[in-house]
């Protein structure tokens, strides 16, 4: 946690906004880095998603579209967006964490990056990169979506803007543990850890 010049008051911490194509490894990276990040005082936001609870490999909270809309209108989300036919929300609790000086990592959306930056001008955008061939193979191997949905997710990549210079790019084509180390190194360089 960072403090002001007096060393007493916590300073608003940074939001770490992890983005990347579907299948690039955002969830895997978060899971593999979770222990290191939590030990370093980084909170990891749990997404709320209108995805069925049966969906495999999902650490998020699954809700119905009606429940999502109730939560949204009640102000439950600090950030929320729609993509892939789903609604995604980041709980407003992250603002309490940030205000108390604890950095927060979220699994974000490339399509929502501009709005997220408007809300959190100081956010650190971290973008994963993987070759198109590896993406397709990983999505098929993950097996969470059917072939049609996988093709839609791959097609989405063509319509999303490429990373700008303010996105810190990490390559996740090779070993996941190397990407974990690269993320931790980046967070140290950026004075988040
Ligand atoms: N570095 C890696 N090497 C090999 N497979 C990986 C790597 N990172 C992730 N994967 C695999 O790729 C698939 C997609 O990863 P996932 O974390 O679900 O991506 P995302 O959350 O970005 O959609 C998963 O089956 C995961 O096990
Ligand atoms: O604008 P984009 O960058 O395309 O992102 C769209 C959404 O896809 C990801 O979620 P989800 O867990 O549904 O997909 P993924 O695990 O396949 O990336 C990501 O967290 C966004 O919520």
UniProtKB/TrEMBL annotation:
Pathway: Metabolic intermediate biosynthesis; 5-phospho-alpha-D-ribose 1-diphosphate biosynthesis; 5-phospho-alpha-D-ribose 1-diphosphate from D-ribose 5-phosphate (route II): step 3/3. It catalyses: alpha-D-ribose 1,5-bisphosphate + ATP = 5-phospho-alpha-D-ribose 1-diphosphate + ADP. Residues 13-188 form the Guanylate kinase-like domain. The keyword Nucleotide-binding applies. Keywords: ATP-binding, Nucleotide-binding, Transferase. ATP binds at residues 20-27. Belongs to the ribose 1,5-bisphosphokinase family. Catalyzes the phosphorylation of ribose 1,5-bisphosphate to 5-phospho-D-ribosyl alpha-1-diphosphate (PRPP). This is Ribose 1,5-bisphosphate phosphokinase PhnN. The gene is phnN.
């Amino acid at each position: 946690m960072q403090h002001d010049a007096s060393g007493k008051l916590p300073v608003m911490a940074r939001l770490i906004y992890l983005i990347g194509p579907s299948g690039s490894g955002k969830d895997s990276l978060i899971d593999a880095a979770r222990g290191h990040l939590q030990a370093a005082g980084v909170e990891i936001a749990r997404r709320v998603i209108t995805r069925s609870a049966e969906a495999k490999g999902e650490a998020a909270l699954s809700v119905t579209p009606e429940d999502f809309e109730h939560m949204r209108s009640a102000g439950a989300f600090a950030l929320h967006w729609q993509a892939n036919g789903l609604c995604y929300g980041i709980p407003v609790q992250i603002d309490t964490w940030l205000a108390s000086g604890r950095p927060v990592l979220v699994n974000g959306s490339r399509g929502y990056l501009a709005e997220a930056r408007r809300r959190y001008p100081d956010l650190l955008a971290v973008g994963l990169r993987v070759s198109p061939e590896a993406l397709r193979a990983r999505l098929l191997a993950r097996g969470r979506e059917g072939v049609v949905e996988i093709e839609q997710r791959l097609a989405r990549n063509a319509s999303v803007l490429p990373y700008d210079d303010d996105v810190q790019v990490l390559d996740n084509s090779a070993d996941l543990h190397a990407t974990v180390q690269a993320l931790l190194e980046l967070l140290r360089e950026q004075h988040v850890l």
